[in-house]
Amino acid sequence: MSGYVRFLAAGGCMLASIVAVAADDNGGAGINVGGLMAYPSAGLAVMSDDNIYLSNLRKQSSTIEVVSPGVKLETQRRDDIYSLAYRADLGRYNSASGNDYNDQSLKGQALVNITPKASLKVNPELVWSHDPIGTTYGFVVPGGFVQTTPNTWRNTGVSAIFSYGTDESKGKVELEGGYLGTKYTNNRNFTVGYDKKITDAGATFYYRVMPKTSLLFQAKDERIAYDNPAVAIVPNSTQQYYLVGAKWEATAKTTGDLRIGHVSKNYDASTAPKQNYSGIVWVGKVSWDAKTYSRVNLVLSKQPTETTLPGSAYMLVTSSTLGWDYDWSSRVTSHASYNQYLQNFGGIGLNTTANNYTLGVDYQMRRWLKTGISWMNTTQTVNQLPYEALMYDRNVFMLSLTGTL
């Protein structure tokens, strides 16, 4: 995913693919090794999934165990902070072992304060992961499937943001750039057309109009180039974003970052199917801490992204997520959320609508040990019966245990 898409996904685009256990980032006290802080973590999840292939035409259930070891290393030199984090998610399906996976990631961060007003943040990453069956669409033909194993891939990337100005400055500028290369490693009869490189560059200007409120203006250019254009679903393309918005902290209880604007997606000249897109996009998050023990988050996004369904020109994705966390005590926290995820496949008139509901409770057994139970329900519908393979209902129950030293 590009940096822009990754920001949206981190905001809560719950495409119902897989439930993974994540140990708290720096949730433990850490281990000091000669000035270098180490934060080991481990997670264990046992899940019951009644529709692992995300289709009512091929419904199969399975229990899944996921083991998630990880460690984060961090050091500070004067005002500069450097970190390196490794994590693995090792999943095993009891009733469908062909879906087993060994995902791994290695991500770094360097935060360098050049002057009191200027700083540079650099984030390199190397990720090995997979697309569970049902989350990409190269396998879909009207009325059925052709895919039997998940797609596996490797991402290599780096992103950077240079900032000049402080939160108290009247004006602040952020310059950003990034590179992300994606290489699929199996199912090459159709994933060979997914390999691509994404480069982006942009700038955001903040203008403070009140002590805790700034207006913002953002421009960004993104280039998507496929490694094998002769077999790619769509040609190479360029996307330009122009957004305006605001970032605020109205009170200690309410914060937000909302942006709306225009995007144009233009394909290179090619004989492959193409349909340029131009329209309104938005992205934002609003957090409301009604009480110290009650937190509400709203995440909204709309933008075009790359398609994996043959015959379509792009996917226009609209996602809305509302979540509520409530601390019943210092040890018990409940979580509830609703997400609607809409996909419009340009060029073929296909629309999918997924509604996701999640409920969960965590119990902090010790400072370093937490357990939880959760349930997720997803229902996806389509507007064209020839693509009924994409329709499904799914329920996932999960028991988890996470620990950090």
- Described by its quaternary structure, the protein is single chain
Give the C-alpha Rg.
22 Å
How far apart are the first and last residues' alpha carbons, in Å? 31 Å
Mean model confidence by pLDDT: 89
Structural class: mainly beta
Helix content: under 10%
Low-confidence stretches: 1-24
* CATH architectural arrangement: Beta Barrel
Instruction: Count up the helices.
Output: 2
Percent of residues in beta strands: over 45%
Order of helices and strands: HEEEEEEEEEEHEEEEEEEEEEE
Main pleated-sheet profile: 18 strands, antiparallel, barrel
> What is the total domain count?
1
CATH topology, by name, is: Porin
Shape: globular
Describe the structure.
The protein is mainly β and 405 residues long. The chain has a single domain, classed as Porin, CATH 2.40.160. It is built from 2 helices and 21 strands. The protein has helices at 3-10, 188-191; strands at 31-33, 36-49, 62-77, 80-93, 101-113, 118-131, 140-141, 144-145, 151-164, 171-184, 196-210, 213-226, 237-251, 254-267, 277-291, 294-305, 314-327, 332-346, 350-366, 369-382, 392-404. The strands form 2 sheets. The chain has an 18-stranded antiparallel β-barrel. Strands 7-8 form a two-stranded antiparallel sheet. The longest helix is centred in the N-terminal third of the chain and has 8 residues, at 3-10. It is globular and about 55 Å long. Residues 1-24 have low confidence and may be disordered.
